[in-house]
Amino acid sequence: MHEYDLIAEWYATERRGPGGVRELEHLIASLPSGASILDVGCGNGVPLTRKLLEAGYTVVGVDSSPRMLERFRTNCPWTLCICAPIQSANLEGQLFDAAVAWGVLFHLPHDEQRKATAKIASVLKPGGLFLFTAGDQDGEKEGDSMNGVPFHYWSFSVEGYRKLLRQDGLTLLDVHRDAGQNVYYLARKMTINIVEESMYSLSEHVTIPIAFEVERVLDVLPSSDGFDFTERLLDSGYVKDYDALEHPGDWNRFDTSKWNLFAAYADRNRVGGAIVAIDTPEIDLLEGRNDLAVLWDLRVLPERRAQGIGTALLRAAEAFAARKGCRELKVETQNINVPACWFYQRQGFVLSAANRFAYPTLPDEVQLIWRKRLAGDGR
Predict the structure, then answer these.
(1) Residue 91: which CATH number?
(2) Pairing label, strands 170-177, 367-373
(3) In this predicted model, what pLDDT tens digit does every residue of 300-325 receive, in sequence order?
(4) How far is it, in rounded angstroms, from Cα 101 to Cα 85?
(5) Considering the domain boundaries, does residue 44 fall inside one?
(6) pLDDT tens for residues 152-189?
(7) DSSP state of 10
(8) Fewest CB within a 10 Å sphere: which of 36, 322, 325, 371?
(9) In the chain, how many domains are there?
(10) Nearest residue to 154 (alpha-carbon basis) of 180, 179, 117
């Protein structure tokens, strides 16, 4: 933040109290030896980053103030620091056991706080902890100036933060105030366990709703290098429920003996599942091939979507298909399921076909066929 560049020298001499140290000590007590910690808004590194380093942890600091980081490099030499807002910081390939953000989030407008928490959640290991300070009343206000420099503050309510964290796959564990009236939040990233089950678990699998709201559709047009996509907002939305069109109980008309079902559990609760079909001649999508698998079904609880569960299920499905000697994974979706289309594209699938006439009773829907070559396919 530009404001912290203006007060960097003043801050180094006037703000040297032990703020946040007590809460940090509680966090440290729950971390494994040698844990990696992301220090968001690390500032000049005193006292929190230094405390973490003294405890033997590996720390990566992130701060948007170049002037503050000049002092950080002096106070915490040999410690990696990144000069960028956390929302855009390059942390690719890194995962952390914990993250700390003391005195940071309330400087960010609401939309930027959403981006910041999403970014932090994305680099936490399953079960990782996130300790941060923020307000507890929804809104924004002009705060007290520091060394004559004015600051503006934004906050959600406690319930607002609880909802925001949950959207990012984090569970709020504790909220409390310290003696200085700073409000601390402690959250934990949920642990996702993928369990390989048989098709006998189908009745449990279908308890996860697959319905979704359709507010936009994809207009798909052929191009020189494949297809071009354009999102189009509908005049009025509606709910699409695949199970209402074809109940999963009807799948017993196929020989599913070689199919596999994966269940996703988050904190011991069933939150999603996936089914992979292979070697089933009566399934047209399989093209009569024994080296092709079809992702027949993928579903996640509505309140748990966009939290990495679908990705974990897809990885399990890919691994299963590869073990069975499949070179390719195929999935069918429709242009009305925009989130699914973007999801498969992000996961490395390529759109191979778009059929406007696949569903005679649903003339507004376009069948989209996505394919992904599996690891080990050298073709």
Answers:
(1) 3.40.50.150
(2) unpaired
(3) 999 888 778 898 999 999 999 999 99
(4) 12
(5) yes
(6) 999 999 999 999 998 888 999 999 999 889 999 999 99
(7) H
(8) 325
(9) 2
(10) 117
Residue 74, domain member (yes or no)? yes
- What is the extent of the structural domain holding 296? 193-373
Helix segments in the chain, DSSP class H: 2-14, 21-29, 48-54, 66-75, 110-122, 158-167, 202-205, 242-245, 309-323, 338-346
Residue 23 belongs to a domain = yes
Single out the residue in 171, 190, 209 at which a domain terminates: 190
Q: What is the distance, to the nearest Å, from the Cα of residue 252 to the centroid of all Cα atoms in its chain? A: 34
Question: 183 forms bridges with which residues in the sheet?
Answer: 177
**Pseudo-torsion of CA 129, 12, 180, 39, nearest 10°?**
-10
CA distance readout (Å), 143 to 39, 151, 155, 188, 339: 24, 6, 12, 30, 39
Q: Are 148 and 218 in a shared domain?
A: no
What tokens does 268 get? Answer: 């011991």
C-alpha dihedral sign at 127, 128, 130, 131: positive
- For 209, 260, 283, the CA distances from 290, given in Å and listed in that order, are 31, 15, 12
Query: Do 320 and 364 share a domain, yes or no?
Result: yes
Q: What share of the chain is helix, strand, coil (3-state, %, to 5)?
A: 30, 35, 35
pLDDT bucket at 377, cuts 50 / 70 / 90: low
370 burial level (CB within 10 Å; 0-12, 13-18, 19+): buried
Choosing from 131, 161, 190, the residue where a domain stops is: 190
Q: How far is the C-alpha of 173 from the C-alpha of 189, rounded, in Å? A: 10
Q: Are residues 232 and 336 in the same domain?
A: yes
| Distance of alpha carbon 200 from alpha carbon 260, whole angstroms | 10
Q: Does the residue 154 lie in any domain?
A: yes
Six-digit token string for 64:
């948007």
Q: Which token pair is 137? A: 């009343």
